[in-house]
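Session log. Operator J.P. requested a structure for one protein chain; no other inputs attached. Running the standard single-chain path with token output.
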Amino acid sequence: MADTPSSQLTHIGPSGQPAMVNVGGKAVTARLARARARVVLGPEILQLVQAGDLPTRKGPVFQTAILAGVMAAKKTADLIPLCHPLGLDDCQLTIEVLPPDAVLIECTARVTGKTGVEMEALTGASVAALTVYDMCKAMSHDIVIEQVRLVEKTGGKSDFHHVA
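Structure written below.
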């Protein structure tokens, strides 16, 4: 755990059981988190996508993935047991083509509150990546979702910026 600000797990209570972190005494601050996921589609599928958003029987891939990512970020507390429910101020997803064979999905979440939005950004990027997989799997099962990671966090006790 060399890259973490604290060596203690925050979601374990005194008895060793899972516990939600009490944020009652924390200050309300503007918080931002940005997460990314890389999806390797393969050159054939990417070639179909490069001219624009690839439509499938389920709809347009990128537009559907963006909507799924926003919906997931808003539902993070329903998916991750100890996350605080947050009313997001903003959630934006982008999908960038990375020739020759991949796309980069980025989710930026913002809230003004007592707890961060890292899990919302990570959930948004992850579900958008899963949606791309789901919509393209009929063309190939060799699609790989990789490098899901937090790349930036501001507000709260400490800031974080991943150095590429």
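Operator note: The longest strand covers residues 29-40.
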